[in-house]
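--- STAGE predict ---
source: upstream dedup step, 1 unique chain passed
mode: sequence only
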Amino acid sequence: MQIIKKDGTLEQYDEQKIINACNKAARRAMVELSDSDYQIICNAVWDKLVENDLEDTEIYEMHNIVEAVLEEYYPVVAKMYKEYRNYKKDFVHMMDKVYEKVRQLDILGTKIMLIQILH
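--- STAGE serialize ---
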């Protein structure tokens, strides 16, 4: 089973990444999950992947599956997981805007320098 990352590269399925993400969400929710809780989550995620015959899975689909499993078993943790995903998307969008502004300023600065050199 492989995961198709945002940049199109493939990565082997890794339960530890699910555990790490759920652990972060649980801490933000001030919930302590046990090893057996993590095993329930990982088993349910795996079952959904097999059930949907997802041999190679897009990362966004993996996030949706993890979120659905958390919603079913640990709704408070699911809320934190979802909020963090939205925060990251918003942050990336904001950084794209900043990058575009910097690029525009760089182009403008280059034009001003050329005008000064030519005059």
